[in-house]
Structures are given as structure tokens and as C-alpha cells.
Amino acid sequence: MDAAALAGNAHLSGTIDYVTAFDAIHDQTRPLDALKGVLSLLKPDGLFSMVDIAAGSYLSDNKDHPMGTFLYTVSLMHCLPVGLVDGGMGLGMMWGRQRAVEMLHEAGFTRVDISEIPDDPFNLHFMCRI
Length: 130
Ligand SMILES: C[S@@+](CC[C@H](N)C(=O)[O-])C[C@H]1O[C@@H](n2cnc3c(N)ncnc32)[C@H](O)[C@@H]1O
Prior knowledge:
Layout: E1 16-22, H1 31-41, E2 42-53, H2 68-83, H3 96-107, E3 111-117, E4 120-129
Parallel strand pairs: 1-2
Antiparallel strand pairs: 2-4, 3-4
Helix pairs in contact: 1-3
The chain binds S-adenosylmethionine.
């Protein structure tokens, strides 16, 4: 299914305990709609694990990031082009944790806990609850 079209699905709404997205939200053309859709799927006590790139939202946050140049390059060559299709938002993989948290809250998640992932310096784990 198109992740941006999950909301309003009568069969799935409020039925899911746990949803995961591994490095997929930043590639969405309509990421806010996708996050609202995920929220709509969850049971009231459900959990959404969003695993996404470990970076800040501002270039200045990432100037000492050991993989920063590589990550911005991959974003420019892949994530931005796919995210801009059909007038999409074009977040890019370096949208960063501040913007991610803002968008998760805008989608309706009230609690977002962020943890680093052992042995995965590329990603953060955003644990999101309604
Ligand atoms: C960077 S890949 C991540 C793939 C996989 N999760 C991984 O970690 O290897 C981003 C994925 O998002 C999917 N995607 C992008 N927009 C989508 C949409 N609107 N609905 C469903 N999937 C979408 C793409 O097909 C792609 O598989």
C-alpha cells in the first residue's frame, strides 16, 4: 500500500500493536501523511518504531559528523530526488532529529523517546506513542 494513504482505512484503523519503519520515512513524498497513517493504524497503547538517520536538522549540527559528507551526498543523489517526485516534500535523509520530532508531534504522536542503537551509528530509534 501507499504509506501516505493508510489513514482512513476502515479495516486497519486502530488494529495494530507495533509498526516499524526502517529508513523509509525520510524518502516519502508525503511524510506527514505517512506518519498520520501509521498513527491511525495503532491501537491506543500501540508503538511505532521509526528508525531513521542519526543527524541534526541543521548543517551546523553535522559539521563534525564522521559520516556527514557521505550522508549528505547519498541524500542529494537518492533521497531528495525520490522525495521530490510528484511535488513531494523532498525531506532528504539529513532531515534530522529536530525536524523528525516536530513532524511526529504534528502527526499526533504525543510521546517520542529517542535512543541510540548499539553497533548502528547511522541511525536513531524514535519510539513513538499516541
Ligand atoms: C531507503 S528505502 C528503505 C528500505 C528498507 N526499509 C531498508 O531499511 O533496507 C525506503 C523505502 O521506502 C519505500 N517507500 C517510499 N515511499 C513509499 C510509500 N509512499 N509507500 C510505501 N513505501 C514507500 C521505498 O519503496 C523504499 O523501499
